[in-house]
Structures are given as structure tokens and as C-alpha cells.
Amino acid sequence: MFQKITEKDINYWRTVVGEQYVLLDNEDLLAVSKDETENLVYVPEAVVQPHNADEISLLLKYCNEHKIPVTTRGAGTGLSGGALAVAGGLVLDTKRLNKIVGIDTDNFQVTVEPGVITQELQDAVKEKGLFYPPDPASKGSCFIGGNVAENSGGPKAVKYGVVKDYVLNLEVVLADGTIMWTGANVLKNATGYNLTQLIVGSEGTLAVITKIVLRLIPAPQFDMLVLVPFKSATAACEAVNKIMLSGVIPSGLEFMERDAIEWTMRHMDSSVISLTDDVQAHLLIEVDGNERDVLYKEVEQINNVLETFDIGEVLFADSHQQKQALWSVRRKVGEAVKSYSIYKEEDTVVPRAKLPELLQTVKMLGEKHGFQSVCYGHAGDGNLHVNIIKGDMSDDDWNTKLSEGIAELFKAVVGMGGTLSGEHGIGWVQKQYMHIAFSKAHIALMKQIKTSFDPNGILNPLKVLPE
Amino acid sequence: MFQKITEKDINYWRTVVGEQYVLLDNEDLLAVSKDETENLVYVPEAVVQPHNADEISLLLKYCNEHKIPVTTRGAGTGLSGGALAVAGGLVLDTKRLNKIVGIDTDNFQVTVEPGVITQELQDAVKEKGLFYPPDPASKGSCFIGGNVAENSGGPKAVKYGVVKDYVLNLEVVLADGTIMWTGANVLKNATGYNLTQLIVGSEGTLAVITKIVLRLIPAPQFDMLVLVPFKSATAACEAVNKIMLSGVIPSGLEFMERDAIEWTMRHMDSSVISLTDDVQAHLLIEVDGNERDVLYKEVEQINNVLETFDIGEVLFADSHQQKQALWSVRRKVGEAVKSYSIYKEEDTVVPRAKLPELLQTVKMLGEKHGFQSVCYGHAGDGNLHVNIIKGDMSDDDWNTKLSEGIAELFKAVVGMGGTLSGEHGIGWVQKQYMHIAFSKAHIALMKQIKTSFDPNGILNPLKVLPE
């Protein structure tokens, strides 16, 4: 149904974005052919780099009329293949939409273009005493536009929520070239259907995001960080809920299996954590706020909970450097596992108290289906990243049989009241499992919504929704 | 296009819900013919009172096939006419879906049916040490289902957010009778389109909500409340933003014009607030948390801000009774204004710092168009309720010309980055103004979404979306 790109198409795009912003060289095409999802490669036919909504409007209108697939791309740090041009066609690279349009310190809001790196956005608002909490592990390189498209989370979500909790309004371009704001720059809104929240997490399949209005909060002034070694990984998962039940809401509550830490420190050539032989997992726990005394009390309260478990010596990070070093280990786990082996990453999420059961299920399924796994993630949210390692699995088992094991895992997750993805999205690699979480009627309804936005199906085709 | 109800329809419904739950008496029809919106009355042809999703599924399937309009109704406390059966047909009364299905203290969640009174829900979870913050002024009588349908707010929203920030998952029945859960019982979710958030605030036009999973938070242990008289209403609005900029996030930050308080105390026969002649407006400010010392510090910090304004004597509520009395005045303003005069209520919302400008615009337009207004509301969110009083306006001016003034107000609001409704919804009485906030393309897209859910348009017809 889609059309191949022609010379005529390319000439038109050149008139829209400028000669040098239509890329056709093999090298340029390869540069946008991957994201961080496994080792998948899909080479598009062309790349355009527009620099504003008006240009995107013209591009989409044209592609819509000519039935050319358009895959919008941020920084390419996605973990579900959302930015892969699996249907060929055009990659719409958002890197030139890279302005922080304005920080509204009166209203605690920022208006930003999608191609701004999340960390840079955080730093810019922090200079004004404001805080944008959601920070995926890739915050130093990912784009805020991708974060919105995937409804990203990150370690702060346990206290501060995910991206969707901060998006107030979006400027988007629809498939037919219509430019619109989805909502208003207000904290509460009961005016028509919430298209803003519908587009957050829709992974580039409904519209192209060209501006984002985020609410901000006053930056907390202090934080404290502790690392807690556990002799049982299941016990560490159990402690997570006990901490929450004690009444403290940490600003970070991360779980890492022993292998995750060991491999990451080796990968980083770091020795910040001393791993004794009896340690099976760690919790990394942060509290933040404006009152040091309160934070000390909270750490003590957490400690009282921890003492009821069989733990090793708690490491209390006593400097900014040490905090950075510990967070850095946590942030690099994905990268480290990737460097160690071919792997598939699942992004399971369950009601928090089910975390021990989830971990045990992962290991049980690993034994049954013959896969090794490294688990870590945002335990405070019940969000466990399960990295399945190819190791010495045969190519045949890896390519064909493993999906049975993953399907079984997802069935268990759904049975626990959870779902397929907490923050990585469905994209390309998880859509085959969507029927586990959703009925046919539900998927049909999502498809009708897709069609309402994008009748010709040009926007990020073949993603999210199964055939 | 819609069909009138026949004897055959009624007989079928009786087999579904039981004889006594199909109501046809004039008195029963009148009882559901109103909500709290102005003095509007729309009498339906019949009322059904199903008691679970299965019954609702059968009812909707039937009405969908027979093209009978279905208006879902909660407690009838709405302020935009959302529950009025303006197209006749059937009213689906949700009062028998009145169970708190379960409070999950492990995961801080509650599953509740739509016909539970919000206050009762709050009380039930509070007994378990948990807190469900959104509490509209009508919390003692409104249903949680209506709150979700309208995306309600309330005074706590300034710190804790609105209903949409607490809804994790919904069981809904679609127009064709399909029963589905929209999401999962998890804190983060990046799995397909966010139908949960699309249905929150959709005012019964997309689906009938039959179960609601809400996240909860640990209940804060202490709160403090102060009432601050201002000699200028505009100055009171200015103080709102200054308080927020000082770094404190109050758990309530309410604005009331002098008339609002005067009329309400007269209506309630209360004297809790002593109004000196020079007072033009009040701020009611609450802080909450688990550390009394911190609350005292916050009140002091707020006081430092207030001292830069020309204020009267600050009333520090020193008992639970006094706090209740003050909140009671605030909660009763709407009712009091209603008892005083025929009125129309607007629910304007702007970025918070624009509040003084909004208030001045309201008064300026009142002078221009000859209407008197009483303003109050959730100033911390930029959400100002504008009650327009009929007073001695002629019926002709009231019925025909006033809408020009309201349209002008909404245009100004949209120009400030705001929108038509912060928490009351669009329903029946505001839809004529939707074109002020949305382009034709935007409204067309919303209509397509409506059609995806409800192709025959039987669910709450003629609401939200303009023709």
C-alpha cells in the first residue's frame, strides 16, 4: 500500500526544508537505522531534518497524499524499536527542533521543542530553581520528544510520577498537515477529550509533536542516598513494599540483581560498590526534600524497616561524587548488559506488592525455557526490567522459541494486575504480545483511534498495534 | 434519528434489571430531570437502575441496536448539565453500583463502583491510613463516577492534582455492550493508547464507567488553615502567585470575593468570619504534612509573603471545628449564590499568574455587558469560578445577549493560555463555546474519536461537542 520515494518527492522536500536537510547518503541512512533495541537495523529511504512545525506540516501533508511512511525519530535511545523505519520511507529527524522556547518561572512551566536533550532541559529549569523530575536512564542523550512519545519514567517516578504527569499541552502536526495545540497551559482542564494524554505514549503513531508544555515543581534542596545489600533478591523485593508501607515516599527506590551490578562495574571499570560473596541484590534508596532533619528521620525510618531483613552493611553516600557514582552504576546497567551479551529487554510492571512474585516467576520461567536473566529497575513503581541474555542459547531457540517464554511471562504479569510495559513502550518488538494484555475489541478500538488521527496510516506504520 | 421508547423496550429492560428497577412514573422521571446546572429541566422517557456491568452491557447493546439515547447519571451534582437527558430516551442511574469493591492497602489502591459518594470513599480509605485527595465542593453527595466522568478537581488539587492524576484503570462498557478494562492496576504504563485518560473527563459520551481503580497516597497527619482578608480582590489574586513562588506548596489556596462570603454566611446563618467594611476578598490557605514544625515554618513563610500586601487580621484556625466551619463556608458558596439569584456559573482556568488579569477582565466585561458577578475558586490552580448573577437583568438580556459577554470572557481566557473549564466540564451548557478553544479540525478529530467509541451516538447525545 505504501509508495516508494521518488526523485520528485525528494525535490519537493528539498524546497520545504532546504537542500542540505534531505539526507540520502548511505552513511546518513545507516545513522538513523538503529535505536537501542537489541541489534535491529532498518534502513529508511531518506531522512529529513525539518526545523519547525510549518515545515513538518508541509512534509506530512505531502507524505499523506503520496502514502509515504513517516517514522519520527528523537535521539534513538528507545528500547522497543519505536524509532525504527520498519516500513521504509522517510525518517523525520527532530534534532533541529532543539530550542527551549521559554521557561515561565511565574507559572512553573516550560515550553520546549522535542529535540532538546532531557538532561539539558532539567539543567536549564534547575538554574531557575525549578525541577522537571522524569529522567530515564538515558537522560544525558535522549530527547524530551521521545520521552513524551513513550511516556517515559525513570527513578524519580516513585515519588514524582512519569512524563504524562507533567505534560500540560502539546503542539502537534497531524498526518494531514493540520497544526494544533492539544490542550491549554493550565493545571486542570475539563474541556473536551484529553487529546494531550492520548498523544503522550502513542509512540509517534498519532501525530508529530512539535512543542511541549511541561509543568514544573520547585526544586527540592536536599537529598540522601543509601545502597543496601541483600542476601536474597526476593527479600529485597519484599523490602520495597515494606518501605512504602512505613509511610516514607522515597524519591528513588531501585532494585538491582547482583549480576547487574557486577557486570556494570566491570563494564565501567568501577569499584564504587564492594560486592561480598553473599550478596544477591541491592536496593538503591533516595529521599529528597527541603528539610534535612526530615530527611534524616526518613532515612532512619527506612533503616528500621531494613533491619527486619537479612542485609549487609548499608552504604550511606556521603558526598555528591559518591551519589553520582552510585547513580551512574544504576544508569549504566542496560548498556553493560548489552556489551556483555545479545539480549532482549522486557519492561514488566505489576502492582508493587507483587514484585517478589514477579521476580520468582521470571527465574522459574528462565529455568523452564532455558534462559538466563538479569533483573533490575524501578522497584518502587513495581517496574522490573528483565534482561534476557542469549548467552549460550542456540540461535534457533533465541529467534523462535524464546517468544513462548516471554509470552508466558507477560501472561503471568497480566494475571498479577500488571502489564507489558511500564515505560519503554510497545513499539516494534512488543506488539506481538499486545493480545495478552488486550481483547480483540480493545485493540480494534485503538485501531479506530489510530485511523481517526491518521487515515492513511503513514505515521510510524506497523508499530504498537498488532495486525 | 433516535427512536422513542416502546412498551417492548421497557419489557426487555425489566428482564435485564428486574421489574422494580425500570422507572416510568412521572415523579421518578422528574427526580432525574435536573442536576445543579442553573434551573434546567429535561425529563427522560424512562430510568433504569442496573446493578452491575453485565446488566449495563445488555442495556447498552439493546439501546445501541434500537438507537435509544442513554444518559448516564451519577448523583446529579454536575454544573455543566452533563447528566441531563437532553435528547430524551433512557437515564442510566448508577446509584446501585455503590460498592467499594476493595481497598488494597499493600499497593495503595482502591477499586470502587461509580455510585459511591466521594466523601464515603475518602472516609473508608482514611480508616486504613490512606488518602484520596480530589474532593469537589459537593463531596458529601456527589458520586465518584461523576467525578471521573467530569475530571473533577477541588481545593486539594493545587498540591495533589485532580481526578485524572489518581485513576489507574477503568472497567467500562462500550456502546455495543463490550465490557473492558482500559488499562492495568499499575503506577506506570506505556502499553498502547491511554484509553483510561481519554475516558476520564469524557462526560459519559464515550463509555459507561462501571469500576474505577484509584491510586491512593499515605494520609498526611497534620494540617493548618488560615483565612486572610484583603482590601483589594486583585491584590489577593496577586498574592496567590507570590505564595507559590515562595516555594511552599499549600494543600489549599482558595479565593473568595467579599460577596461570596457575605452571601454564604447569610445563607448558612453563620458568623464564623467577621467581615469588616474594607475587606474585598479572602484567601483561605491550608498546608498539610507529617511534621508540625515544618507546617509552622510554611505558615510563617506564607505570612512573610502576605505582609507585603495590604491585609486585615489573619485568622489562624485553632480547632478542628473552626477549620470545618471555614471550609464549610467555602464549600457552600455555589449553593448560596444559587439561593440568592438565578445565575450562570463559568469555570474559567488560566495559568496561575494570570489570575489578577482574569479577575479584572471579568469585572470589566460585567460593566460592558451589564452583569454582576461573584468570583471564587481554586486560585492556586488558576481556576476561577465566575458566578454571573441575573439580578435585575431583563429576561431578554439574560437569555440571549449574555452569551456574547460569556463568549468574550472565554476569548480572553484562551488568549491568556487558559481554557473554558477547569473542573466542571462542558456538558450541555458550555458546548456552544467550544469553537473558542478549539479549531474546526480539532473538534472534527474529537468527533471521530466519539464515533470510534459510539458509532450510533447513543451515549449522552448532544453533549460536549458542538454541532
Biggest pleated-sheet summary of chain A: 7 strands, antiparallel
In oligomeric terms, what are we looking at? homodimer
Q: Give the total of domains of chain A.
A: 4
In DSSP terms (H or I, runs of 4 or more residues), the helix count of chain A works out at: 16
Mean pLDDT across every amino acid position of chain A:
96
Largest interface: A-B, 87 and 87 residues
Helix content of chain A: 25-40%
What is the gyration radius of chain A calculated from CA atoms? 22 Å
Using the coordinates shown, work out and report the CATH topology of the largest domain in chain A.
Answer: Uridine Diphospho-n-acetylenolpyruvylglucosamine Reductase, domain 3
Structural class, from helix and strand content of chain A?
alpha+beta
Strands ordered across the widest β-sheet of chain A:
15-12-14-13-17-18-16
Work out the number of β strands of chain A: 18
**Proportion of residues in extended strands of chain A:** 15-25%
Q: Gap between N and C termini of chain A, in Å?
A: 15 Å
